[in-house]
Amino acid sequence: MAQKSYDKALFRLISILTMLTKDERPTISSLAEEFNVSKRTIQTDIYQRLCGWDITKDKLGRLVFRDGFDIFSTTA
Highest taxon of the source (predicted)? Predict the structure, then answer.
């Protein structure tokens, strides 16, 4: 069965969150290269699709969770 485009997008989003959780600090360019998509696609992933995850850039332009953000905390 052919893989659907939303399968690829979901895999990419989960992978990005996993990298950030492990504090791997990827760049937009490195993610675009790894997933074979444009930088614009990664920017859309980060700033629109994952906008609720409090992702920012460090001083070197690498993606990180904002200080104090806990992926496992929940709000009621």
Answer: Bacteria
Count the Cβ atoms, other than its own, within 10 Å of residue 63. Answer: 21
Identify the CATH number of the domain defined by range 5-65.
Answer: 1.10.10.10
Radius of gyration of the chain (CA): 13
pLDDT tens across 5-36, in order? Answer: 779 999 999 999 999 999 999 999 999 999 99
CB burial of residue 44 (10 Å; 0-12, 13-18, 19+): middle
Decide if 55 contacts 20 (C-beta within 8 A). yes
CB atoms within 10 A of CB 16: 23
Q: Domain spans of the chain?
A: 5-65
